[in-house]
Protein: N-acetyltransferase domain-containing protein
Organism: Alcanivorax borkumensis
Amino acid sequence: MLRLSQPDISDMPTTQPPLNDLAHVFSRAFFHDPLFEYFFADPSQRQALAFFTFRFLVAHARHNGQVDTTPQPVDDHNSLNGAAVWLPSSAIEHSVIDMLRFGAVRALFKQGPGAIKRQMVAADAMQAVHHRVLTTPHMYLLLLGIDPSQQGRGLSTPLLQPSLDLFDQQGLPCYLDTHNPNNVSLYQRFGFEVVHEGDIPGTSVQHWAMLRQCKSRA
């Protein structure tokens, strides 16, 4: 198992939006994501089932990393409209204790073993690429999601740029995975470059791994 030293995240702003609200935003934002279409093929169940995956991922990240949010009115309510979830490279892998603590058992019960297996196979494939591409301390953009009703309003910048600036100050590169071709150009605007492109083995789901080198301070 690859073990990397823990980057300093002590200077990051702390936000604690409701966990379920975050999971719901991500389950809506990723409804048409090719990877989640593969995980949960039935569109009538996808959002409800994906909720448990995102709840687990965000619960783990809130304990081990950073969740950045930009609250804005959604449907005339002052609701959460999007979030970016970051993990330090030392906290990317999930231990058995993590799975028990943050809701993996509940996800198994709700989603069934087939969906869990699909997620584990995809996660293993992405992790293999990740470990091959980058072995020094860095930050991992686990999730970026914006409520569909708020997409196209430029919210990616306030969600990403403050943390990217902080990681530059700390000398940390950043890494991410995406499976939506529309996201590649978005992340390129923030300085990420494609370092791997291919299919998740055994599927037709495309996978892009992207790396952003630390920007030197002037």
